[in-house]
Design a protein that fits this description.
The protein is built from five helices and five strands; from the N terminus they run H-E-E-E-H-E-H-E-H-H. Strands 1-2-3-4-5 form a five-stranded mixed sheet.
């Protein structure tokens, strides 16, 4: 189980209300896979997502020369994703998303700033495909986790998503312990 992909899939299913969510969708035309795709039939929207969960290094892909390869790697991944979605999901409003919890901003050198690199990637993809890559990083990633936690907090049925079930247990346990402590104090 890839926990980052599970978080994205849960968000698409429970928050974006996608009717179909597929993790590790292997593309027919080119080698590789798309991390998560979600389709909402009611709104006619498709979510095409890449997820990378590097905690200590932040967003970091390295090439064979062990040098930072974020820009080329992400442009290649999303180019493949966009080509696939345009061919197989032509009638859907498409959202292309990069999910990464920790993206660092090295303010001393622009070339090592992962934030700067993502802006370069966004610009390259816009220039080539006229799409706006949505970045679910740092605070916005945390906001999505908060939305999932709020959903888990209010839901009483057992949730199928391991992520949401964990959050649900955590939320209900906290509430239960709080009530126990109130009872002990009275």
């Amino acid at each position: 189980m890839n926990i980052g992909e599970e978080i994205v899939a849960s968000y698409l299913e429970y928050i974006k209300e996608c009717d179909f969510v597929q993790k590790n969708l292997y593309t027919k035309d080119v080698q590789g896979e798309i991390d998560v795709v979600g389709i909402n039939l009611k709104t006619n929207e498709a979510y095409v997502c890449e997820s990378t969960t590097h905690l200590t290094t932040g967003l970091l892909y390295v090439g064979r020369d062990y040098k930072n390869n974020n820009i080329q790697k992400l442009v290649d991944k999303f180019s493949k994703d966009i080509d696939y979605a345009e061919k197989y999901l032509p009638d859907y409003q498409k959202h292309y998303m990069l999910w990464s919890p920790i993206v660092k901003d090295n303010k001393t050198t622009r070339d090592n700033s992962q934030i700067y690199q993502l802006n370069v990637v966004k610009g390259m993809l816009y220039d080539k495909y006229k799409i706006n890559l949505e970045l679910i990083i740092n605070e916005s990633y945390q906001d999505c986790l908060t939305a999932l936690r709020a959903y888990a907090r209010k839901e009483t049925k057992a949730l199928q998503s391991p992520i949401l079930r964990y959050m649900q247990i955590e939320e209900y346990l906290s509430k239960h312990i709080s009530n126990l402590n109130k009872y002990k104090e009275s």
